[in-house]
Specification:
Blueprint lengths: L17 E3 L2 H11 L2 H4 L2 H5 L17 H14 L3 H15 L8 H7 L15 E12 L4 H7 L7 E9 L5 E8 L8 H6 L5 E5 L7 H10 L4 E3 L18 H21 L5 H14 L2 E2 L4 H21 L4 E3 L2
Parallel strand pairs: 2-5, 2-7, 5-6
Antiparallel strand pairs: 1-8, 2-3, 3-4
Length: about 325
């Protein structure tokens, strides 16, 4: 239920309460998320050195897995590149393997072209939840702007994401400028998801003919659950061949907007909001990289690490009040 519903009397609505049923297992998972052995695995040590190059050009010292491991440690523990080098050096010193440690310039340069593995896809149809959020960029702080009256050269970027409603994992992401419309990024998000689609759920920003067309083009049987605008009207073909949007409008007229949300499944949007909150709480609200490709790699690394934490285990809760 949206926060604005029952605004005049929501102070009298009791807060829902839940109880975690697998607390012992979840408590172990929470401890494991902070363990270095999860992020600095034996596989990474075994494949630390890069494979010999057979084409012309310089030979890389570190494999892509080594660079990804270093950048993952940076994202998980919110470190600078030089601090990341210090952490990896201390871990290797404790473990004992004779391996070189990439310096901060190598990590920054290799992040420009690093390919991060995508989440594992399933054969079952996916209930896809989409939304976007803003990520700040490094630049002048609020204090400098207020004191000197200067304008920011770098403000923020918009992160578009698609989340699996069942698992909560982030399946696709797109990093764009702040002026980019949400609906225009539906096709790039769908291109990253090879799994079949059962439903597509988004907020009112996705109430566009192009969004319905993009989903229908790839998944003709998928349901598009997007709340129509308050000024929306039925199409000319509504009486003979109503579209999905027409059926949403008819349901709203019959049952009200809150009734439509419960009947259509729009209330399943909560996991995408939780994914956004989890991403910002775990990895922060700002991007530290300076170039477009490095920012995309930074986001992909953060998403990959976040999905890894969900694979370790999640709480199972039941409502008690």
């Amino acid at each position: 239920m949206p926060f604005k519903a029952n605004a005049a009397r929501r102070h009298r609505i009791p807060k829902q309460r839940y109880r975690v049923t697998n607390w012992a297992e979840y408590d172990a998972v929470l401890r494991q998320r902070g363990s270095l052995t999860v992020w600095f695995s034996a596989e990474a040590i075994a494949a630390w050195r890069a494979e010999p190059r057979t084409t012309r050009g310089g030979q890389a010292h570190y494999s892509a897995l080594a660079i990804q491991t270093a950048l993952t440690l940076r994202a998980v523990f919110r470190l600078a590149l030089r601090q990341t080098k210090g952490l990896i050096g201390s871990v290797l010193q404790l473990l004992g393997p004779d391996l070189a440690v990439p310096d901060h310039s190598t990590l920054s340069r290799r992040a420009e072209t690093l390919e991060v593995p995508r989440p594992n896809q399933h054969a079952e149809p996916v209930h896809l939840l989409v939304d976007s959020t803003g990520l700040q960029l490094c630049g002048p702080g609020e204090w400098l702007i207020e004191k000197h009256g200067t304008r920011r050269r770098r403000t923020w970027r918009k992160l578009h994401m698609a989340v699996d409603a069942e698992t909560g994992q982030i399946l696709a992401t797109e990093l764009t400028g702040s002026e980019v419309d949400d609906g225009s990024q539906v096709e790039p998000l769908l291109d990253q998801i090879p799994s079949p689609l059962a439903s597509f759920v988004g907020d009112g920003a996705y109430d566009q003919a192009g969004v319905y067309a993009a989903v229908a083009k790839r998944y003709p049987n998928a349901a598009v659950i997007v709340p129509p605008r308050s000024t929306a009207v039925l199409s000319e073909m509504a009486s003979r061949a109503p579209t999905q949007r027409d059926r949403h409008l008819q349901s709203i007229a019959e049952h009200g907007r809150m009734g439509w949300q419960k009947r259509s499944g729009y209330t399943r949007r909560a996991p995408v909001e939780a994914a956004i909150s989890r991403l910002k709480r775990v990895n922060g609200t700002a991007l530290r990289s300076r170039t477009k490709h490095r920012r995309a790699t930074e986001v992909a690394i953060a998403v990959h690490a976040l999905n890894r934490t969900l694979e370790l285990g999640c709480p199972k809760s039941i409502r008690i009040a």
